[in-house]
Amino acid sequence: MTRLGPDELAQSFEKTLGDAVIGIRKCEREVGVQRHIYVSLWVKIKPQALHDAVLHLCTLEPMPHFSVISSADLGDEIEVCYHFSLCFGQRRSATAIVLKFRLNKSNLAVPTITDLIPGAIFSEREQQEMMGLRVEGIPDDRRLFVSDSFPAGVNPWRRDETGPHDMLHILGGREGIQHE
Amino acid sequence: MSDTVHKTSYSLPIGPIHPAVHEPIRLDLTIDGEEVTAVDVDLGHVHRGIEWIGMNRNNPVQTIYLAERICGICSACHPFAYVLAVEQATGIDVPPRADYIRTIVAEIERIHSHLLWAGVAGHEIGFESVFYYVWNVREKIMDLTEMLTGNRNSKAMYMIGGVRRDFAEEQFAAIREAMAFYKVAFDELKKIFLEDRTIKMRTRGVGILSKEDALRLCVAGPTARASGVPLDVRQDHPYGAYADIGVDAITPDVLTGEVVGDVYDRIVVRLLEIKQSIEIIEAAVSSMPAGPILTEPKIAKLLALLKKAEGESVARVEAPRGENLHYVRLKSGEEPLEAWKVRAPTYANLQAVETILKGGQIADVPIAFASIDPCMSCANRAVVMDNASGTCRVLDGERLHQLSLEKTRRLQAELSGK
Amino acid sequence: MGMNSFKRALWVYHVNTGSCNGCDIEIVASLTPRYDLERFGVKLVGSPRHADVLLVTGPVTREMEPRVRRVYAQVPEPKVVIVVGNCGNEGTVFHESYNLIGPVDQIIPVDIYVPGCPARPEAIIDGVVKAWLKLEGATKERATSK
After folding, report:
1. Residue of A33, A63, B263, C114 with fewest CB within 10 Å of its CB?
2. What CATH code is carried by the domain that includes residue A115?
3. Which residues in chain B touch residue A162, judged by CB atoms under 8 angstroms apart?
């Protein structure tokens, strides 16, 4: 299997997904005294293209290494990042790839990718309970980190009215650090 | 085997003195006779809301100390990944000497963690003397950690932009002496774990995870490498001093010539990694760059810089248990992080528990589960439940541990021809 | 201090309410040959009903709170509660959360607070010895009040 470099990977995304790719940011950093260049790709896509993008990753490498889904509450929108790593196995060979898209809070549906990558199940369950995403086709709908007695509709990572504001408890009787 | 399918509950201890240290974990398994037929993972008894604290209450420097306490065993890898992510997101430089110090501390942690695990593994099979021996050997690395960082645990070495303490010549001498000690200890451990017939009988062919399953389930660290997946963040996405020193992922065929993906292979990989860590530490010490250790030593200035900064990044480090990832996002004008996601390795490795335990015997549950080196506080906790109907028979953790000990004694008797 | 004056073994039951395991590992280290808590006759037991001392770590999550109360009720009198570690004593890094309702003395009465993050084996042993003295005092009181 030929190992693709970051530029070739970027080109393959643009070629396969066309205008579903909104933009690709190439992030370079120097590592070590010998200043090796290490590259990661941040691929911004349209949310509907998520499944196709992951499918494309699976053609580049039989089983890309999936790490986690991260998300950020930006007000009206939630930005979601799927973190992957490709071409691992030799020294300094891998490229980290982030698939990034924004969802409006009025529609937080994403398709499951567990049909392609079964190991994504924990991350999808966590995003459902913590950020309130709705993963369509998820094979296991249960909560992961919070217990079943945790109130429904409360999303601990959100900064809006669904956040855990009523559930906060300050330990030790000290005032919590206040931020404006 | 039998017609009755039982549902059983297993309380997983992490401590060697069996009832001593209870993790709030329960494995509920479906067993048919002696075989485990179904396993399910459920987390959620010990969720502390750490990411919320980092996003709502702390400034980014306070979050370093919070990250250290995500897990008491891997207290270097979490702040390491965190500060790397913040530095990448904000463009803060790190002096080369700090890179090397960070690497040394991380590798010392790896040796400590693998020794801790080896002791627990010995206990799970029933070799109490192995447990006591290994944890005594481990004390030397605790002393070294204390001499270098001031504490046996919670090292508080990492800071955004470098490290907080430098090493003096006496400390380098202590490191060299400790590495010489561990080279000898490594040969002893190799003999104890890899040449003992009973340990081999208890672990060969037990808890197998195939390479395909390891890839499908996105496992990381020694659990993945023991199944033949050459995944190691120090090799693939190098950071710190690893790009200079050069690291290759260790798979069991390096020693045994084959990959089975069982508990024995996981022991092989972890023991060989101890040797590898010794070599990395020695390489880092011998090529230690001179210079400063911290880009911005004044915390107030650093905090002001971070408050103005905007950006996002993701950083991965190779924790003793596997790939540890931190994603951070900073917003200009806000002191707490805008977003923070921690993906500890056990989070991924737990997904493989069902595959590892299914089809095995209940007497093997303690050692097979322990072989993925679950760091429960990293991943919150696991309660493994089953979906069986039928008669409910409760076996508590002590009983399951007893079954493991009985199996060991049985095998020892067979081996000695009684 | 007169170690020889301890007239009984000390049976300890440990419960983890959500700690990072740092203190739990140091508790186990206290029992290994280097620190050797066992030479004082300390024994860890598998059931709270057999215990004299309840050893608690962690900042108490919502899910663990009923278990802590239940375990406390099951330990027979006279009993002593030791909390090991800063987060169980006071919260410290986990100073505020949506899923934590500690520290431990908000849930059950605590007799001995062992500080540290994690607590050193020396501090844990010191705490256990203090608990022992308290327990011996309590036993003497009960005997003399009868």
Report:
1. A33
2. 3.30.460.80
3. none
Q: What is the mean pLDDT of each run of 10 residues along chain B (418 residues)?
A: 51 35 55 77 74 93 93 87 95 94 95 90 85 89 92 90 94 95 93 87 92 93 94 92 92 93 94 96 95 95 95 95 94 94 88 88 85 61 34 52 82 78
Stated pTM of the model: 0.91
Structure tokens, A147: 């217990």
Task: Decide if C95 and A168 are in contact by the 8 Å CB cutoff.
Answer: no
Domains: count for chain C: 1
Q: Does residue C37 lie in a domain region?
A: yes
Distance (Å) of CA B162 to CA B98, B152, B157, B174, B413: 5, 21, 9, 22, 56
Is the Cβ pair B48, C46 closer than 8 Å? no
* Tokens representing residue B108 in the block: 């010392």
Dmax over CA atoms of chain C, in Å, equals 47
> What are the structural domains, with CATH classification, of chain B?
5-46+360-415 (no CATH), 50-347 (1.10.645.10)
Best residue of C10, C15, C19, C21 to probe chain B, by most B CBs closer than 10 Å? C21
C-alpha B117/C-alpha B14 separation (Å) is 10
User: What's the complex ipTM?
Assistant: 0.92
Cβ distance A150 to C95 less than 8 Å, yes or no, reads no
Of B46, B57, B376, the CB nearest to C96: B57
